[in-house]
Amino acid sequence: MKIFFNIVILTICLVLSGCTPEDQATTISFDNRISFSEFPAVVSLDSGTIIDTKTIGNLQFRVIDSLMVIATAERENSWKVRSIQGDSTLLEFISIGSGPDEFVSSPLISQASFFNGDGNIYILLPDNYRQQLRKIDLSKSIDSGQMESDVENNPRINNFSVYSNFSDTSTRIFVSVNPSEGSIERTILKDGSELSLNSIQHLNQYKVPAPDKLGLLMPNIIFNCDKNRIVEVLELYPQFNIYSLDDNFSVTVMPEGKIDSYKRYIDNETAENKELIYSGVNGYEKFFVINKINGEKSELWFFNWDGMPLLDIKLPELATSFDIDFRNHTLYTLNFKNDIFKKYDLKDILEGVSQ
């Protein structure tokens, strides 16, 4: 493992209202922009340790407390729950079908909200087809050996939904596609009332001329209610956006000053063959982490919730999904292309950016 600390002070510039109308019309960005040239700390990890999860067709995973929840491509019991410290599967659940406790298609981990409450671990999982929100008591399900859940109807969850967040009891975030308008629509409810935010109206204004181009506008979103921050990362563009629920903060972060437009991909097939710049983003208490794709390798970029760069962890190979076990200072990664899980020791690395 190699650790480098940059001695030179970060070159960070904040540009206020620094974009032309033409620029604003063709890039998904805010007027306020941050540009940085390097991270204050850079770490290169060694090969890591392969983990045999005894699962196949692995797509995504999440670490919560002492558990690892894995979403697979299987039709029967597609989600697996394993103990991080042990070598056993504690629960298999979520199947594809038309039954009352089944899903029409296998949901991804990124669609779920995980939280602790009353001493138990819960998962809030939207069912777009049935317009329902399923609350799964994961702790109780492990004890009983089958999914224990309650269901509530929610008309904001539908076939056009691409993201929803329910981790904060008073805040609900919904993102859906509008094929007729060629846009992505964000809606935020606070205590049951819809918030009217300038930042949301600004981001919702971007449009494409045809439904098959909506992927150009599709963000990965994370929300931290304590920090009052929402982060949106688009996999095709270098810049990413951060904004608050009170309209007091909105900024576009541009690594190395880079920013890209979606407009040049509309009239050609370039976007279909364009390699991803990012592959997912995870949010934690004091920072969020973006998976930066660098050829056949990944870099994990750490930022505080205002967009300031903290740490760059360079992995020796590609990761398509990742999460951090803070109790044991361990990074877990998955490459779904070869179905391999790995773990890395982060004990000395996380001290500067620890929870």
Summarize the amount of helix as a percent range.
under 10%
Structural class: mainly beta
Query: What CATH architecture would you give?
Result: 6 Propeller
Q: DSSP strand (E) fraction?
A: 35-45%
Mean pLDDT: 89
Show the helix and strand layout.
Layout: E1 2-5, E2 13-15, H1 21-26, E3 33-36, E4 41-44, E5 49-51, E6 58-64, E7 67-72, E8 79-83, E9 89-93, E10 113-117, E11 120-127, E12 132-137, H2 138-144, E13 149-153, E14 161-165, E15 171-178, E16 183-190, E17 193-194, H3 198-204, E18 220-224, E19 229-233, E20 240-243, E21 250-255, H4 270-273, E22 278-283, E23 288-294, E24 297-303, E25 309-314, E26 321-325, E27 330-335, E28 340-345
Parallel strand pairs: 3-21, 4-25
Antiparallel strand pairs: 1-4, 2-3, 5-28, 6-7, 7-8, 8-9, 10-11, 11-12, 12-13, 14-15, 15-16, 16-17, 18-19, 19-20, 20-21, 22-23, 23-24, 24-25, 26-27, 27-28
